[in-house]
Specification:
The protein is built from 6 helices and 21 strands. By secondary structure, it is α+β, with helices and mostly antiparallel strands. It is globular. The relative contact order is 0.11.
Length: about 400
């Protein structure tokens, strides 16, 4: 008798989960239309930064995220007279409101603040609320969440002024967001599944690593710029990588953690970019597979057409680390067998370029944490072992 009751309850839960997924497909349309109105209103109210909408139906995510905002010049090189020879802009970015559905059907609303190399909040995101069903994302919920998002924008930005009410509200939201910590039963409910369910987006993500303070976080294996972006990108890649099963030596889905600064005429020195692997990568002559987050791909933009806003992204270096902290590398300048790698749009994999967007300072770039397809002209046969590292990604 107990077995029959359990089966009945199980069938009921499966049916409820199915309807939650159906409801998401219906309500995400409403959310997207509302977000479009929000962006228009932000422009009308004089916000100088660019906001964008990203929707990923495969991962059941939708978000508004900010573009890069130039902050100040940072002096990096000096001549004999101690005068700055090279001046680079530092940026703030990362502000986002993310609505995402988990594998269990719940829907989470997560807010992310602005961050920069010199300015970061102690609490890196706010879990605004978790709903049991997409039908609970009503107009009033969207209005309230977006209002708090722009409060977060004001409080976290180096440029915008915030009111006492804004600061008080954000402090309150940061406090109640801790209800989803590991010490609270809600966290166990939210993540009670056979895979580590993630809540996030192309632009920002809250993973199990971030929500459980005591969980280990992957580290970078060499110092690189925007290290906070690398850590976040690795977390996102590991969670998204669950959807990819088949390794390849010919192409890899990867995520930007350093986006290039593209100007016209093109300056290759400032157009450097970096990605972390999302799909598994296995050289054809190797029996080892590098999983999501194990590899980084570095390169620069070698061609840019401002008329079409399209650029050619060339891969120069592949760096991977396995589970035993063995490091491998391949550079298309020094490898015995040169490789040619470039980026393509996931939706248009036959094209050998990517669409770029114009930033507020007049330069062009791609959104950090967005995904692209790395394609090689020939399968990568082997990457060179270079030694062991103290810290893995």
């Amino acid at each position: 008798m107990m077995l029959k009751v359990n089966k009945k309850n199980s069938d009921k839960l499966i049916l409820e989960r199915k309807y939650k997924f159906i409801n998401w497909g219906i309500h995400v349309e409403k959310v997207e239309k509302y977000f479009q109105l929000v962006i228009i209103e932000a422009k009308n109210k004089g916000y100088t930064e660019n906001f964008y909408i990203s929707r990923n139906d495969e991962e059941r995510q939708i978000q508004i995220f900010s573009g890069r905002r130039p902050m100040e010049f940072k002096q990096t090189n000096y001549n004999a007279s101690n005068d700055a020879k090279k001046r680079e802009l530092s940026y703030e970015n990362g502000a986002a409101i993310v609505i995402s559905q988990t594998e269990l059907g719940e829907v989470a609303v997560i807010l992310y603040p602005y961050s920069s190399e010199k300015r970061n909040r102690v609490q890196q995101y706010i879990i605004w609320k978790v709903f049991s069903d997409p039908t609970h994302i009503t107009d009033s919920v969207l209005k309230s969440a977006v209002r708090d998002f722009f409060r977060y924008v004001h409080v976290s930005s180096a440029f915008l002024s915030e009111s006492f009410v804004d600061k008080s509200r954000i402090r309150y939201l940061e406090f109640i967001s801790k209800r989803y910590s590991a010490d609270n039963g809600m966290a166990k409910i939210l993540f009670a599944h056979w895979i580590w369910i993630f809540i996030g987006s192309i632009g920002s993500i809250a993973s199990i690593y971030g929500i459980w303070p005591n969980s280990p976080k992957p580290d970078s294996f060499v110092p690189i710029p925007e290290s906070n972006n690398l850590e976040r990108a690795i977390l996102m890649a590991k969670m998204e990588g669950v959807a990819f099963k088949t390794p390849s030596a010919l192409d890899v889905v990867a995520k930007f953690y350093v986006s290039p600064t593209i100007n016209f005429p093109l300056n290759k020195d400032s157009s450097v970019f970096a990605l972390v692997s999302v799909s598994p990568f296995r050289p054809s002559d190797s029996d080892f597979t590098f999983d999501a987050g194990d590899c980084r791909f570095l390169g620069n933009v070698t061609n840019f057409d401002p008329a079409s806003n399209k650029a050619y992204f060339s891969i120069q270096t592949i760096s991977c680390t396995d589970n035993s902290k063995n490091a491998f590398s391949l550079n298309n300048t020094y490898a015995q067998d040169d490789f040619t790698g470039f980026l393509a749009n996931l939706k248009y994999p036959t094209e050998s370029n990517l669409q770029v967007v114009k930033e507020q300072d007049g330069s062009y770039s791609v959104p950090v944490f967005s995904n692209a397809l790395i394609k090689f002209s020939n399968p990568i046969k082997m990457i060179k072992y270079v030694g062991q590292v103290n810290e893995r990604f």
